[in-house]
Amino acid sequence: MKKITNIFLGICFMASFFILDSCKKGYLNVDEYLYDFTSLDSVFADQDKLLTYINGIASYLPNEDRLWTNAWAPFQIASDENFISWNDDRHAGMKFLLGEITPYLANSYYNNYGTWYKGIRKANTVIARIDETKNISTSTKREYLGEMYFFRGYFMYLLIQQYGPAVIPPDEVLDIDATGEELSLERNTYDECVNYIIENMELASSYLPNTKDALSDIYRPTSGAALAVMSRVLLVAASPMYNGNPSYSTWKRTDGTNFINQTNDNTKWGKAAVAAKRIIQNGQYELYTYPRSTDTEALASNVPTDQYPNGAGGIDPYRSYKYSFIGEVPATSNSEIIWCTNQSPTTTDSPLWISSLALHGGGNGLNITQDLVDAYKMKDGRDINNSSTEYPYPGANDVYQTIGSTKVHSDVQIASNAARMYDNREPRFYATIGFCHSYFKGTTYTGSETTYKNVEITYYSNGNGAPTTNYPNDYNHTGYTCIKYNHHTDNLRGSALSKVFPIFRYAEILLNYAEALNELNGTYFDESTGITVQRDLEEIANAVNRVRYRAGLPGMSSEELTSQSSVREAIKRERKVEFALEGRRYHDLRRWLDAPDAFGTPIVGMNIKASSSQRSSFYTRTIINNVLTDREWAFKLYFWPLPKNVLDKNSKLVQNPSW
Fold first, then answer.
1. Which of 142, 294, 115 is nearest to 206 (CA)?
2. CA pair distance 201, 195, nearest whole angstrom
3. If you average pLDDT over residues 47-73, what whole number do you get?
């Protein structure tokens, strides 16, 4: 047995080198390797074996870049931004969107429950026994402990995000000989889970390095990543869904405590504001900007031209936004990225793949809704329904007319056949939305087929993005797709740049701060940090304007700053556009309690049944009415159900409401 164990440990040790050498793969994207030793005593024999075990815990973290195909969670597919053309096991978020999920089906789809608790248990083991490790330096021990506290907090964050109030396991490692009844625990309240996350992230923040430069692997969490988790969690906890929500008044623990508190506590907004301000004051992060070039599009006349961040001067807004997502700038050189994972862009699970199908003989089954498209403003910051004479949004009789001549700026080429409704929109629109007559360069393809690069994609019934005979169900239903993760040279028949997916980026912190300040009544003082925050319109505008100026838009208007309600709506819209198709929209709609309205609205797109000779018909807003769009919001959809097999193992667990 000793020899067998030594051989096994040798294999594990070798595996750790593959893991450590895989910055190309990414700390959070480790797929399979051996790390679970037969004897836990062996784990703490030396630092290398311990690191292998720690990397194994990291493998329980989800691949958060997988938004659509084989996704780790249903929430991107089930947002109001999009739907998928296939209701199958690889895109099971559609089943959630269409109300087909049951607790029994949750055994098979997105069943992360046991995995994340396993991660917490193993982190507890390391914390309890790390002092047994031989020849480990104080600095290495601190970093490992910081990661364990981060893991504990992050796995709990993932649990409450998907399942709601969770069981908080004891810090001590549970005795495996204990009875099933002793191991069965009741769910804690949502607020208790939040406190658990914050406590662990505070510890993680105090132990982990402050900068990415101090890490051996840029995908490992930093002190800033721990603070970013706190910012997001506290903002959600302050929101109407979890802060005095009477809809859950009868959902209680056995001791009568409500799982979701029934008293609105406005100081929670203060805590959220402080968490964001700590990162702002940290000084490690800033929105990524790219210098203005000769091909940068001119700003609208009402956009301040002062040097960024006091205006949009000196930067290329399109590239400044786009480059964080497409592999143009490495994470080490991007001050906006707080924590990230890398993408494998040529796998069928990547965001790039599903948004590139039209280039490769498929019809593209990622359908973006007209509602998201219409949220993007004109380049002067005006709403399309209140556009200016300088940049008018065309009337119903003119939306289909062509722009007349090809426009080229930054890395964007807008074809002359593009409709006027897509002309003079803000830069984030062109960075994110693919529309009929979008131009795909895809220049890394070097073959002889002319249809695989420098392609103008059309979604008419007779267009090159229409369904093929062999795949009649593979087509785009709305006339829009996502190009946020597409580099202009990417081509899956050639090559694609390696990319990182920002799990937390500084733009979120700025908008978190603005939202929390706006909702705060009075002044809030945080004793532990000495930070004081209050509802200050100048502070709010400064935070939002950094995001808007980076996008080449004017700052907040006096009309937007008129009232708490007007500021709230402006921030909601800014989040909708800035974080479009990044996996955050579903959670924002839920925490604001806006989901019933958003999902109660019919899905609208272009009329893809019209041919290229029927442009006016194609560019008519059309309700998409089929089995894939029959969505209807139900109260139970605020949470994913606890899997039935989890309930069967723990008699003290109660199912989420209405499931």
1. 142
2. 10
3. 94
